[in-house]
Each structure stands twice: as structure tokens, then as C-alpha cells.
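Format is sequence with structure; example below:
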Amino acid sequence: MTRLINAEFFKLRKRMMTWVLAALLVGLVLLLYTVLWSISGRVTRFGEHNEFTGEDLRRALFLQGSVPFALQIAGTFGAILAIILAAGAVGSEYAWGTVRLMATASSGRGRLIAAKLVVVAALTVAGVLAAIAVAVAYSAIVTQVDGGGDYGFLTATWFREQFAAFGRTLFVMSPYVALGFGAAVIGRSTLAGAGTGIGVAFIEPIVSSIMRQGGSPWKDIPNYLLNANADVILAQNALPPALPRFRAGQEELARQHVHSPEGAALVLAAYAVAFIALAVFVYTRRDITASSG
């Protein structure tokens, strides 16, 4: 397994796509911070009921809120990039024609696909950590420049909350990564995996919104899909109120009568396990050594 993991890591580390995806995530964090910092100095009041001021937004960008905001970006937009990474990790083998070579040279298809999953998971974690690092660095500069250098919030409780939020974000991303990975295996291409994963991520919220406008049983179906349960988990992260949310908040989720955080976690875990199990089942039983591989 160690040899296979090293080989998969070497391939993804040398691919331009991996670095482009990382640059997109880091660039998105920088862009959003820059835009919000600029807005904070230009607006007087904003929000649905004008409940926040520009100063509220500026203080929300301080170091104390940097990790939750970075995790929101990673959990929403970073999940899309992780889908592309996962799909490319396995789908490109079919495009290059190396899938037969790898399958026959490795000590078992199960180990090979497990190595791919391990490397994809590790790079996803690294990407989220990079987003956090950039957000913390930007927030530290903003905090010092604006005279908000009070670090009394750095307590054991604060660090525990950030680690918990980090775990929630990775957990929410896992079924989307598994979907992209599994679809690429079944569809035998990067495009199939990326298209399926991104399609679900973008289309499902729209379809769910339409379903919620109808009566039973349609209005309850979205509660068993990915998006609503991902919203439930990410809503547990303590994001400063003045910062924009890219997903449904607690009040909106309460109106939708969604699952509890525990129930949402079970639904997302079931999806992730099902997608991975299906990918492993297809990959280990498909005749990829034949010319139609």
C-alpha cells in the first residue's frame, strides 16, 4: 500500500490540474477577503434589515472569525474543486490508457483504488488547510492594520471549536468527493465524474427548492438529499453574523424542518459509503484489461 500511495501522490503532485485547483481555492479566499474589506470601508449599513454596519463587517474579518469563514468557502466552493480532483485522479487513467498497466502491475485492484482514495482525501485536507492558512494570514494583517490586535479569544475552547468546525467541513465534503470519484470510475472518464458531481452540487439545490413548494411527499424529499444535510452540518460552524453565508442558516433550516445534526450526519455518511462501495464494486469486477477497458 505504501508503494501505491507514493505512486498516486507522485502522479497527482506532478499534474498541473492539482496546482491549478489549489491556486483557485487560495485565490478565491484572497478575492473574497479583499472584496469584503473594500466593502466594509464603503457602506454604512447593509443586510436584509440593515442590521449591520461597515464596521461590523470589518471586525468580522478579524482573526477571530478567519477560520469559520475559510471553512465556509472550502465547504461550498472547495467541494467543487475537490470533486474535480477526485474525478481526475481516477478518470485520467482511462484517458491515458494506463488503467490496464496499473491494474496488472499493482498487487490487487482493491489496494489500487484504496491508494487513490487515500491520496485524494489527503490532498483535500491539504487544500482546506491551505485555505485556512491564507485566511488566517490575511485576517492577521487586517487585525493589526485596523488596530484590533486583541488576542484574548485564543483559548482552549476557541481552538476546540475550530477543530470541530474543520472536521464538520471535511465531513460535508466527503460525499461530494466520493460521488465524483465513483462517477469517474463508472463512467470511465474525468468528465463523467466531474460533470456528475458538479451537476449534483449545482442542480440539486434548485430542484430541492421547487420540491419544497409542493405538497407531500415532494416537500420532504430534499431532507434526504445531499444539500440540505450539508447545510445542517455547516450551520453548526460559528460564523460571525456580519459575514455573508453561502448556505442556508439556522433560521431557514428550521423553517424547512430538516434533520437534526446527528440525523444529517447519518444521511451524508450513508451517501459517502454508498458511492465509495459502488466505485470499489465496479472497479474490482470490471474487465479493464480487455480492449474495451
Observations:
- The chain has one domain: 2-285.
- Residues 2-285 form one domain.
- The chain has a mean pLDDT of 86.
